[in-house]
Every structure is written in C-alpha cells, then in structure tokens.
Amino acid sequence: MSTPPMIDAQRLSLMLNELRLPAIKHMWGDFAARADKEGWPAARLLAALAEHEIAERDRRRTERHLAEAKLPAGKTLDTFAFDAVPMVSKAQVMAMCAGDGWLEQGANLILFGPPGGGKTHLAAAIGLALVENGWRVLFARTSDLVQRLQVARRELALESALAKLDKYHLLVLDDFAYISRDQAETSVLFELISARYERRSMLITANQPFGEWNSIFPDPAMTLAAVDRLVHHATIFEMNVESYRRRTAEARRAGPGRPANFTTPKVLEAVRDNQDDK
Ligand code: ADP
Ligand code: MG
Question: Is the pTM of this model over 0.85?
Fold first, then answer.
C-alpha cells in the first residue's frame, strides 16, 4: 500500500473506527494509491470513499433485515409462476413489492386458498422483495408467533412484545387458520391485530375463508371484530387453484408434450428441470 509518508495510517484507522466508517477504513489505502497514481482531485477521492461507505452500509442493513425476517429459503418472485394463479395480478403484486402506499397506511394483504396453491411461496416472495426494497419484515407461522405471545402474556410482557413487533413494517402470519383451540382461548392474536390496526401491515395466509375462522378466536364477536379490522384496509387474493405440486406431478405423468390439464410454460420448465435432475 503506497501510503503518503505524512499520514499516520494507524491513527487514521483508529479515527475511522471511532467514526464507524469500516468500509472507508478498509478501502482508503487502495483508493488513495489509485488517486495518487491517476491524479484524482481530492474531492473525487472523498466522494468515492463516501459512496463506498454508503453502499456497504445499505448492503449490511439489507443483510441484517434478511436475517431477522426469517423467510423460508428459495421462495422468490422469479420462481413464482404467476400464470398458475390467474386471479393474482402480477402487476399489482409488483406494485405492492415496491411498498407504495399500503405499508405506510398499515393496510393488509390476505391470501386465501386450498393447500398447495402457492400462498406461502407468494407471501415469502413478497416479504423478500420488500426487504430488498428497504422495508422490515418478519415471517412467522401463526401458531409459533401466538405461542411466543402467550409466553409474553404469562410473564406480563405482552404489551412490550407487541411493541417490539412494531419495528416490522410487515408481519407475515402464515397459516392463520391453523391455530389450536387452547391457543385461541387467550386471544393474543386479537390483541396483535388490534395493536397493528391502521398502523402496521400484516400479510395473512389461510386455507379457510372468514366464515370458518370461529375456531381462531374465543368467541364469535371477537372473530367478527378481528375480521372487521383486518379487512377494513385490505387487498384479498383468492388463490382458488388446484395444488401446484399435484398439477406439476400430473403434468409430469402426462409427459411434457401432453400435459394433463395444466399447461403453463413455467410449470413445464419446472417439470423438465425435475426430470433432468433424476
Ligand atoms: P400453500 O402455502 O398455499 O399451501 P405453497 O406456497 O407451500 O402452498 O406451495 C406448495 C409448493 O408448490 C411449494 O414448493 C411452492 O414453492 C410451489 N408453488 C406453488 N405455487 C407455485 C407457483 N405459482 N409457482 C411456482 N411454485 C409454486
Ligand atoms: Mg402454506
């Protein structure tokens, strides 16, 4: 490293530590050498270093937010075949992934549909896109989160547990209807919905329509009140399609040239890829 002699490199390192500028600390030597060699004006060197630090900071932040989001691996928008769920508008999903409007209003997104229809995949993919766009997301199986909140309630810390979830612009509650009777009895889920109402967004996936949500809450009045709050500002996608897995399996059986009753190009590509793996 060709450090100019009048610079005390060690002291500079300490100062950059103190200022919490790790990227500049790491890069300044190479950048300075290049600037000297190519005769950059001092301002250009400073700007290059600052830009580098900001880019690194963004990258680290996204990395942190990705780790905390606990998203299931490998579920992306790129690998989601929108043509398999014609009732879901890709353009609308893309607009929501930019975050525009709905997250600021604390609006919700609800995905209904039978098992295997792609609800978890789509929810995770939207979560991932939002994190990449700078939003904070937490993905959880509803029954796991309810369990955590019940523990907090027993420890008289429910309010602070709910407040901690506020840092997430979007809370994904996967498999909303899968909570057990005794989980329903304590109604922490209702308190969560009330706490986030019109402030922070939720993305809910559920196999059962609202009419069958009575087992999720202690009594019908509470179910009604919860549904009311959830749908007040909500986009709802009814993903009433046959199981994607089953359809791809059927297409495989029929062979790529004669797909069963499902013929989107992406699905066939996936099927062919699977066959190549074998
Ligand atoms: P659900 O949550 O509705 O039960 P999943 O999202 O778990 O369904 O989907 C089941 C499997 O099929 C997953 O491996 C998922 O990645 C895949 N899958 C479902 N729908 C699609 C789709 N439209 N495009 C690509 N993969 C899909
Ligand atoms: Mg699912």
Answer: no
